[in-house]
Write a structure and sequence with these properties.
The complex is a heterodimer of chains A (about 300) and B (about 325).
Chain A (H helix, E strand, L loop, with lengths): L44 E3 L6 E3 H6 L15 H8 L6 E3 L3 E3 L8 H12 L5 E8 L2 E8 L10 H17 L3 E7 L7 H20 L4 E9 L1 H4 L8 E4 L10 H8 L10 H6 L5 E2 L2 H24 L1
Parallel strand pairs in A: 6-7, 7-8, 8-9, 9-10
Antiparallel strand pairs in A: 1-2, 3-5, 5-6
Helix pairs in contact in A: 4-5
Chain B lengths: L8 H20 L4 H20 L3 H8 L7 H8 L2 E4 L12 E8 L2 E8 L5 H6 L7 H17 L3 E7 L6 H5 L2 H14 L4 E10 H5 L6 E5 L3 E3 L3 H9 L5 H8 L3 H6 L5 E3 L10 H20 L3 H13 L4 E3 L15
Parallel strand pairs in B: 3-4, 4-5, 5-6, 5-7, 6-8
Antiparallel strand pairs in B: 1-2, 2-3
Helix pairs in contact in B: 1-2, 3-11, 4-13, 6-8, 10-11
The chains are: A alpha/beta (about 300), B alpha/beta (about 325).
Chain lengths: ~300, ~325
Amino acid sequence: MFKDIFRKTKYVTIQSAPSQKRSPSEPSPQEPPVISKRELPDGLWVKCPKCGEVLFTKNIEENARVCTTCEYHFRISARARLKLLVDENSFEEWDSEMISEDPMEFPGYKDKLLEAQEKSEMMEGVLTGRAAIEGVPVVLAFNEANFMMGSMGSVVGEKIVRAIERAIDLRLPVVIFSTSGGARMQEGILSLYQMAKTSAALGRLADEHLLYISVLTDPTFGGVTASYASLGDILIAEPNALIGFTGPRVIKQTMRQELPVGAQTAEFNQEHGLIDLIVERTQMRSALARLLLYHQEGAQYGATV
Amino acid sequence: MAQLFDFEKPIVELVQKISELKKFSAEKDIDLSQEVSTLEKKVSRLKKEIYGNLEPWQKVQIARHSERPNFYDYAPLLFEDFIELKGDRLFADDRSIAGGIALFHGIAVTVIAQVKGKDTKENIKRNFGMPHPEGYRKAVRLMDQAEKFGRPILTFIDTPGAACDLGAEERGQGEAIARCLLAMAGYRVPVISTVIGEGGSGGALALGVGNVVLMLENSFYSVIAPESCASILWKDTSKAKEAAAALKFTAQDLLRLGVADEIVREPLGGAHNNLHQTAEELSQVISKYLVRLRSETPESLREKRYQKLRSIGVYQDKDQDKFALDLTKGLD
């Protein structure tokens, strides 16, 4: 059942997708995903970690990387997600060239960054810009799971803050898709303070009466849950997404506490009153469009006050 | 008997030798005062040498010392009066965060502090200083009142990290911390955050959004516990010492990185060696900044706090040449 999500051996490599070379890794920000030994030939097929069904990779890609049998949501790259959401040719990317330094001279960080760039085909762990969703203009940000598990260092924090500040200038709503292991260890205290920085920027957005929708996707943990991902006017999660503050493995290690089956899933979070909506990936575009339309007037109200 | 660390052993041995010598000299009526005074000089030299050059891991040990003063030790020395106010009005009162109103140098302030216990019994009561969501929600409730009544806010950070159990997850630990960050960033009253012991990750940062961030000399403030970092990097928690150096989280590092504004001196060997002296130092430094901040307008306090946060981060932006701050230079 849900526990199967953590079983490394069930993951396989998908090679047909250009920007999503690997299947989901476990929700740990620092470890590279483990490729299964039972790799299927040519990545043509993929086994669903939830229902065990062997599926045509092509069919999964065509179905927004959602299992056609049980609707399990495979992880998806930032760019693939963008493509599913926004009106054609409406996206204008921001700060795409911003890259990390190694301010702490942290062991192995520079290599990790290069590896992550290669793997994700992105310069850093977040994609930001403006676009239109069913005609409604919006500022967007997407964490990239393939870039050090979307962890937040100086660049991720700065790009998100700039996106929010531009949304204020442009008087646009903001939608952020989070996928992250949390604050990026390799930039030490600077990463930690990106939590405060992004939260402070969202405070300014709220002061301007502008809408912020936070979409939590698998996995969202640590410093990202404890900052921008939790501060949406509306919180949406994808089905089955693991969302929490402390990762299940750390809870198990430090508290010697075994989490009940299904803990920290989107459904668990909703049951405990922590998120508004669970929306399937294939329905995300229309759900966001509806919510954005409701708030268009709100933004104008803010502008005239 | 106070908790002793390996690096302190040479000092203790020498002190013991001196007392033996004194005893011997008294018993046998032999004048050894010259030898004693030489050795005493050596002790004070050794102390300066050892305590003046502590490695990051040694500072971690001092910051976690079982007798390190906690907030309740400082409170009666820092404040003329302190009224503790409890509860988040939603779920419970979290005893790992204390909050209330106090008189500091004659000024009414709101105080929020993380509190670790000093023995097992107290630590169980205070969850080892690891707050649950209700602790952070109490903090926001009390800080909102500070904003309402125009009282400056003083926070004191001392936690290994936020609580990491099922209950914390069920009650929205992430959201509770995020609300603290959001709330603190928006206040128009002066906010001074002081790390007095351990500053463990997001659970510490939740009280760290100050106009001014102060750190006691032997405190540390880190994105991750050194043990966890070692476990991720080298799959070996016993390499925490190496991780402590790699994370650059001492007060001195944070001052260089522009996160901390000033380091508050501790007596040689750590705050536990002289509570009153440490409290006095804390009192003076906090008071100095409070006077400065109180002279600013509410809007400027909020704007400057935002700009302080805004400036934290090191990166390269090819579009705008090198946008990064000059922070890296100090690290060499």
